[in-house]
Amino acid sequence: MILLFLATAIFPIAIIFPPDAGPGEKISISELPVEPIEANIDIKIFENYATISLIETFRNPQKWNEEGILKFTLPEGMEVFGFATWDGPQRISGVIMEKRRAVKIYDELRARAIDPGILLPSSANIFTAKIVPIYKFATKRVEIVCGGMLPEIDDKVFFNFPLAPENIQDEISLKRLKISVELLGRANFKKLSISGIEIPIERKDSTAKGKISLKDFSLPSALTIEYEFFKNSPLLSAFAYPDGETTYVMALFTPPQEKSASPQETPVDILLDISASVANYEDDIFTIARKIAQISKNFNCIAFNDSIFEFFQNTQSIYQKQRIEKFNKFIEKLSPGWGTNLLLALSKEYDKIDAQNNEKRNIVLITDGVPSVGEIGEKEILSIIEKHKKNPVFIIAIGEDVSEGLLKSIAEKTGGEYIRIAPGEDFFKILDRKIIPLITRKSIFTDKISVEGGKIISQFPEKYRFRSGMQGIIPLALKDIDRNATISISISGSENYTAPITIDSSLSFIPRIWAKERVNYLLRRIADEGEKDRWVDEIVALSKKFTFITPYTAFLAAPRAVLRPRVIQPRDPKIVVDAPDAIQVVVDFPWGEQIIATKNRDNNLWEARFFVPQHIEQGEYECTITITGADGTQWQQRQKFIVDTTPPQIKVSIVPDEAKAGQTVELRAYAPQDTRTIIAKTPDGKRLDLRWNGAVGASTAIWKISRKLPAGEYEIKFIATDFAGNQSEQSTKIKIKRSA
Fold first, then answer.
1. How many domains does the chain have?
2. Using alpha carbons only, what angle is made at residue 195 by residues 193 and 196, rounded to the nearest 5 degrees?
3. How far apart are CA 195 and CA 225, in angstroms?
4. Which residues are CB-contacts of 112 (< 8 A; sequence separation ≥ 6)?
5. For the chain, the helix, strand and coil percentages under 3-state DSSP, each to the nearest 5
6. pTM higher than 0.85, yes or no?
7. Which residues form the domain of 228?
8. In what order do the strands lie in the sheet with 664-670?
9. pLDDT of 103-122, one tens digit each?
10. 255 backbone φψ class: left, alpha, beta (φ>0; ψ -120 to 50)
């Protein structure tokens, strides 16, 4: 069968906000600290998996240095796995670190006048990066790499990528915009256009490429890429990437198109959050509620904040048109405000269902899921869900700060769906192309997944749920795979599907899909059962190995000269390795020595202590670390270290160098960038920490001279410590004059 395939994708522009801008605060373009002037977007799509690289240039038009918070939103299912900033022409790529450690190092580097960048997840699908400084009349470049599966429904792909947060009031313009697109796999399409502008296409075998360059381009509400092509679409396909002894598989499965009962016949109850936390999205949530009511002949509604407001009508007594008119009047009287009593709303809903002989109904919950009044404990909320889980709850999560873990647990326990509408997304299209199909489609579960010609070593969960006509993904880890391996899936109803597994060493993104699914599984367990150290450690380890951000990790971008894992002195030689799930760690040093590391049970880190041979000169070296996992998988990483015996050389001064008791003076120290801390010891017994002060180009501290200090000449000692632990000491004198 020949199918017409239409795909739509919308891609991102990031914005740098003032550091003091509040959440949801409306900002005009003129209030931004810097302006975006240029963007290069590179898009590669393989079988609905998109990898998107954005390099954006900002300009500071002010006569002073600026700083700000770069902010951007990703749609549900997309991940950030690359981050870099530029220091002039030098690209400084980010490194994945445990989040608390990354924040600590970021603060230390800023105190040393080094300009790092740090990228953090601020809430579900919303990411922020601190950008400092952006020099006057200068430009700053930032690179973000992200990716994920584009959802396919009925052979159509719809993907929404907001161009900027919705609190930007004005239209954004760019002096230059360059976009390149490469499609692999299913690339037999008729045309490609970006925001209605057709792009010339170069075709070769199963690859199609296109690019466009625009000048003085005003961004529309969405930057849309559209293409359509003819393709025999297989219901099941599988691709694999070999990684040592483990092979990671991405199986794509689309159950045959089949709808359940029509929307008009499906009883629906709408639970509508009208608390203060979603007040900025009032129009959106009311529009969604009206749309769902229009397609449902049998519907009720409970609006809730810290109180309950009900819409309940006898379906036999009035026509649908009259019901909709009454519902619209009910909506018009609602006024968002006050707190969120989610448990009260759910209790009221289930009381209604119980009173109707436990009738099975679809529940659509539109909320940010952040309870603030009444019983707010997640265990209590999930407990009432557990008792009524035969009624599917379809979550439409809306707002900047959503309780993703709780809402996903509710959807998963009841067989519903979690749908995230990020700020700035086109929710009208999401409503028609995603929300309505998810609510009305039949659920289909896998009975068994098997591989012939390979051994499955990792599969979670045991059963996968799909919906008819909607593509889903099954990530697997295999061992002992051969070139003729096939995958078979049996689904409820005894239907079986088989497809060959195509092994391709160019598909390096596939292991990340498996790792992300594993992390999502662990995050769901944390949401249900509470945080456990072993789960958090595994999440951090997977994030580092496969390079993507999680709630427990962050990207830190800083010059490699200052972002080294370990700077050592010959008298304190130790290499530290963060590999909590490893069973063995072996370190090979450049002078031929091999050390088997031991695990420190206090901090769960592997440590390899060694001696630096006498003939080794001061400088930078690199060791090779071989890590063995519990399943026998091995991987290597390289770690640089510095043999450093030179203490930091500092110059010190006091401004002014004469003062009276009770007055304040400024202590200054000029130190190299590898200086970690500087303290000053004053004659009145104080120990002062000196911090970087960009205004004077030195580390400074303010000392208020004690009134009890007699007149005379005193010495102040400055002690500087570098990252290797080397110390140096300098002193200078101050003359204390008699008070008048």
1. 5
2. 60
3. 6
4. 562, 673, 675, 676, 692, 699
5. 20, 45, 35
6. no
7. 3-78+125-233
8. 651-655, 664-670, 698-704, 691-693
9. 888 877 766 556 677 888 76
10. beta
